[in-house]
């Protein structure tokens, strides 16, 4: 209605009021009629039913689709997205009718092959749309459930229909290697690459790469679109280390719930920031990551690596061969945002020079402040001075290790600039 874009006249308001009033009265009449019919049917005997039918008094189905638009919208509000979707598939007319009646509100789609597509609203409500799968009649060990024989075409059609019907945007692709064949994965990745309405991927998740390294390799080496958030659950080291080559870029990489990190796979990825959550990573592995970066083998655009918690940090192992330098927090100060994103300053730290001229800073013996000229706490200065006196024994193999080289249950951050 064009008049909605401008201030309505009294006549237009009155017309809308009459339509709304009519719809409400009609729905109320339908409700009363339904209740009345239910009461009559409860009391009817078989003889009454036979008599009523012989006289032509048969209760006919009510044609909901023939309701006026305002009344139809009220009815459509009682259907959940699954029912709205199923009704839209009846015909082109029903699709247009349903589409015009659905209240548009922000929604996002999650593709979780092979079993479902999820429609998610901002108020955390979720609705699952099942995708038919096909299994071999005789189960074979290691056999993956497969999409229907027409898949993935049916799945893609469902996604396009949901995007059109609910005006939804993609939120995440969730891949489960144990439930998806390589062939179907390749077709899904190709479909993502060809989708012009998706310039980049907001979120992508993958579960358990151990013994599924080829799955990750196919995904990474065939995908052509940048990913904003990529989460890998269980980036475990398999029997063989995994090397990957990919052309797209990852803004934020999240590695979760990993007891034995595949360092080769990790250093094969092109990411800006990495966050390791519940990852059991050893000092030697941190050293391998930093050495690989120092030699220019990976991390050209890397900004930071964060380990949520390391049970034990041993700097003598972590810094071997890196030629690390301890910085005075009172002198060396660098601009770096605080955890909440506001401007801040990093004072001190341990620096490692890279072949590309950049510097990696390990946030130990350091302090982060809001302003450049904020005073450095005395405790921080004392730790720095103690470490400086024993730096050769901390960072090298001169003499016995000292207490200052050990940190327990520590959050570790390394930044690159």
Structural class by secondary-structure content: alpha/beta
Rg, Å, rounded: 31 Å
Helix share, percent = 25-40%
Low-confidence stretches: 1-5, 138-145
Total of helices = 13
- What best-fitting shape do the alpha-carbon axes yield? elongated
Q: What characterizes the major β-sheet? A: 14 strands, mixed
Secondary-structure element pattern, one letter each: HHHHHEEEEEHEHEHEEHEHEHEEEEHHE
Q: Using DSSP, what is the number of strands? A: 16
Distance between the termini: 55 Å
Mean pLDDT: 82
* Beta-strand percentage range: 25-35%
Q: Would you kindly provide a written description of the structure presented here, covering whatever features stand out?
A:
The radius of gyration is 31 Å and the shape is elongated. Among the domains are: 9-76; 307-417, no CATH class. Strands 1, 2, 3, 6, 7, 8, 9, 10, 11, 12, 13, 14, 15 and 16 form a 14-stranded mixed beta sheet that branches. A two-stranded antiparallel sheet has the order 4-5. The longest helix is centred in the N-terminal third of the chain and has 34 residues, at 10-43. Strand 6, helix 7 and strand 7 (201-207) form a beta-alpha-beta unit. It has helices at residues 10-43, 46-54, 69-76, 81-88, 92-101, 153-166, 182-194, 213-222, 263-266, 283-294, 315-318, 378-389, 391-395; strands at 107-112, 116-121, 126-130, 133-134, 146-147, 169-175, 201-207, 227-233, 250-258, 271-279, 304-314, 325-327, 333-335, 345-353, 359-369, 406-416. The chain is an alpha/beta fold and 417 residues long. The two termini are 55 Å apart. It comes from Caenorhabditis remanei. This is F-box domain-containing protein.
